[in-house]
Amino acid sequence: MESLIKNEEFIQSIRGTCLFSGDLEYEQERALYNAMIDKHPAMIVKCEDVADVITTVNYAREEGLLLAVRCGGHNGAGFGSCDGGVLLDLKHLDGRWIDPETGIVKVEGGCTWGDVDHLCHAFGRAVPSGIISTTGVGGLTLGGGHGYLTRKFGLTIDNLVEAEVVLANGELVVANENKNADLFWAIRGGGGNFGVVTSFTFQSREVKEIYGGVSFFELERSAEILDWYLPMIENAEEDLYGFYAFLRVPPAPPFPEHLHTKNLCGIVWCYTGNLQRGEQRLHELMQESNPVFTHLGAMPFPAIQTMFDALYPKGHQWYWRGDFFTEITPQAREEFVKWGSQVPTIHSTMHIYPINGAVQHKKPQDTAFSHREAKYSVVYVGVDPDPANKDLITDWCKNYHEACHPYSSGGAYLNFMMEEGEDRIRSTYRANYDKLVEVKRKYDPQNLFRVNQNIKP
Ligand SMILES: Cc1cc2nc3c(=O)[nH]c(=O)nc-3n(C[C@H](O)[C@H](O)[C@H](O)COP(=O)(O)OP(=O)(O)OC[C@H]3O[C@@H](n4cnc5c(N)ncnc54)[C@H](O)[C@@H]3O)c2cc1C
């Protein structure tokens, strides 16, 4: 396999770098964010431009090689690499531009959200994304994308206006509402199944500073706080965002020493409207809920986007699963509390992300992302730096998921899934699945792009 890949003519035609086992940078570049997954591609192509992407796609197709595509490398299931094939790395495609008048932002397919936030913030703007700045724009967007701005401005894909895509046949096409509209529909939730997206164009939103932070509560109050939180966030104004979490308090500032390593529950807040109103609103919510610890204030939007980056560097062991919920019933709540009270390590957690509000301004069939009526996207996350704790975090996560899943609406957010089989993929897309297969047949009939939550042609 290696000799087939080490093709001088191909290497000479690439402006970027091709890495092979034994090369100085190979080990570092092949490493995934999730250290539980250890893959050895035969060749890593660090593409420099769109021409490199086209050449690499053509080469992999013509030689019949397995092809993986990587942006931020954050995928939990490790789809940002492969064993024995070609890894097309987009990291160096990180150009980004903004039109200050319209707020239209164009970013290349290898950018991280930190890149986008940095550019947009200078113009008092932001693109709705996730909650960690090191995540790649590519994977997060293609799966849907939800985070602090979701209740107000919808999913990341609801703010996508155009993409440039290198198809399996090597052709570069534009996809938007008017051109290749079927492809544009499919990439808004359909993952990396349809081609390599070399640029994403978003409508950014006016968000400069937010009022937010965290509030923590004693574990004994977790059921009561959940009962208070759920109806509150379901009925809240779209300016208010807060996700519920079970956690273990990190032994570091700003947390007081007496709380260090304690199991608690908490809410992470982000108010995107008028700052004074945000302060007043959060003050009211704190009086209603009476937390044991708060760390709240006005901050630039990139500050909340990077608040948890240091806690989650590359190289930890990860195992996670997800679910959508249209309702969290009292029986489900019992399971949430039971397993949430047993968070096994400092980095492990469970988050209930609200995805009501603006997400529901679109219908399930409007984009490939189908679960539009779900009010919550839940993630059960086992994380630890120590490989010795791999089983501990994996078992806790699986048990948690298995206990809560029967109460869910089926399927899961694509970006919170491991390799969990075709049924899970089908129940994630539901009625949109058949159309996705049709689009896949049209744009990638040989399934060249299959290192992903795969939709078989
Ligand atoms: C710490 C952490 C926090 C997270 N928080 C959130 C959150 O708040 N909200 C949220 O929605 N998600 C969140 N996620 C999940 C995240 O969306 C997924 O892990 C996603 O797959 C990461 O995208 P990536 O580009 O970094 O990953 P990669 O591993 O590089 O890619 C993931 C998949 O997308 C494909 N892909 C990536 N870029 C392209 C491209 N340009 N063209 C074609 N295919 C491409 C890859 O082939 C692969 O199949 C989080 C993940 C982590 C690890």
Automatic annotation (TrEMBL):
Bilayer-spanning residue ranges: none
Keyword Transcription listed: no
Q: Which Gene3D superfamilies does this one have?
A: 3.30.465.10, 3.40.462.20, Uridine Diphospho-n-acetylenolpyruvylglucosamine Reductase, domain 2
Q: Name one GO molecular function term.
A: FAD binding
What residues does the FAD-binding PCMH-type domain cover? 37-207
User: InterPro entries given for it?
Assistant: BBE, FAD-bd_PCMH, FAD-bd_PCMH-like_sf, FAD-bd_PCMH_sub1, FAD-bd_PCMH_sub2, FAD-linked_Oxidoreductase, Oxid_FAD_bind_N
Pfam families this protein is in? BBE, FAD_binding_4
Which SUPFAM superfamilies has this protein been placed in? FAD-binding/transporter-associated domain-like
Q: Which UniProt keywords apply?
A: FAD, Flavoprotein, Oxidoreductase
Q: Which cofactor is essential here?
A: FAD
Q: Which PANTHER family match?
A: BINDING OXIDOREDUCTASE, PUTATIVE (AFU_ORTHOLOGUE AFUA_1G17690)-RELATED, FAD-BINDING PCMH-TYPE DOMAIN-CONTAINING PROTEIN
Stated family: Belongs to the oxygen-dependent FAD-linked oxidoreductase family.
UniProt name for this protein:
Oxidoreductase
